[in-house]
Amino acid sequence: MNPLTWAFLFLVHQASLVFGGRLSTVVDKTEVVLKWHADYDDQTVLFSVSLSNNKFESFGIGFSDHGQYNHSDMCIFRNGTLTDYYINDAYEFEMDRSQDCVLERFTKNSFTFRRRFSTCDPHDYAFESGATQFILAGMYEKTWNFNNNMVFKTMRYELIFEGEVEMDQLERDTEVFTVLADNALVPSEETTYWCVVRRMPEHVVSRKHHAVKISPHIVKGSEHLVHHMEIYQCMTDDQEEFSGNCNSKEKPKQSKSCSHVMAAWAMGEDDIIYPPEAGFPLGGLDGRQYIMVEIHYNNPTLISGHIDQSGFDLTITPTLRQVKDIRKV
């Protein structure tokens, strides 16, 4: 199974402000099901992990938001215990001083644990609005090296905080702005990654807004080429606008800071909608000014001469919602 084939899931909104989700994948022929329930009142997320067999010596669930395995937070279950680790720059496991992965119960092929939205550990990932990068890793032997050939892993993007929202539940003052490929000439190559860096509209830069819905904008005729897309927040404001091949030498070096994942979409999926209480913060005097869209074109028949203008539509509102940033709830 392609680890980049993500599926955004339906989360249930309950009166007690509890949201839940589920993902399933395969790690080296072992079927893995991860379920979670986020409780706003308790400020925790309860995770349940089920494996189709017990052939792994240990199994880990990790969290991040930058698309890489290193610099990630990970909870590893081994022999009836759960340990909180950090994957450092050299892809080595470091045990956290503060153990914030709390094991609640386990069986031969499953375990359940709880984590707070935000902890005091600088190495811990803070659960917030926007996409979370889940890392699922099975280990056949104990190792301190995440790149050991006995460690099998995959990566998935999901929203921990999401709910079904009808259009009439959106604020009356919502508007939409787009970030699209600028007449991208799709190369006659099987795989191409196209990057678009854009400054947000001036009124968003100057006044904080919440993104309440992020929708794929796939132009007619490109449906068979656009395989998946991601949208990132740029963490520095010294950006230059750009639309081109992500591997081009002309891509501005400062765009490396466009690494904070806001959302991810895969072919066949629907809009990404935040629950009525939450929104993704954009702009404002203390916010960031630029965002980047990365489009993966899958062109196995090597079509040439195709022009594309796909990307994302962002529905935003200046009416800030109750949960402005999950890290600060």
TrEMBL record:
Tell whether Cell wall biogenesis/degradation is among the UniProt keywords.
Answer: no
- Which keywords does this chain's UniProt record carry? Copper, Metal-binding, Monooxygenase, Oxidoreductase, Signal
- Presence of keyword Oxidoreductase: yes
Q: Which Gene3D superfamilies match?
A: Copper type II, ascorbate-dependent monooxygenase, N-terminal domain
Provide GO CC annotations from the record.
extracellular space; secretory granule membrane
- Record-linked InterPro entries: Cu2_ascorb_mOase_N, Cu2_ascorb_mOase_N_sf, DBH-like, DOH_DOMON, DOMON_domain, PHM/PNGase_F_dom_sf, Tbh/DBH
SMART domains attached here? Answer: DoH
Q: What sequence ranges are listed for the domain DOMON?
A: 58-139
Q: Among the record's GO biological process terms, what is one? A: norepinephrine biosynthetic process
Q: Where is the signal peptide?
A: 1-20
Task: List the Gene Ontology MF annotations in alphabetical order.
Answer: copper ion binding; dopamine beta-monooxygenase activity
Cofactor(s) recorded in Swiss-Prot or TrEMBL: Cu(2+)
**What PANTHER family is this protein classified in?**
DOPAMINE BETA HYDROXYLASE RELATED (PTHR10157), MOXD1 HOMOLOG 1 (PTHR10157:SF23)
Give the family this protein belongs to, as stated in its UniProt record.
Answer: Belongs to the copper type II ascorbate-dependent monooxygenase family.
Protein name in the entry: DOMON domain-containing protein
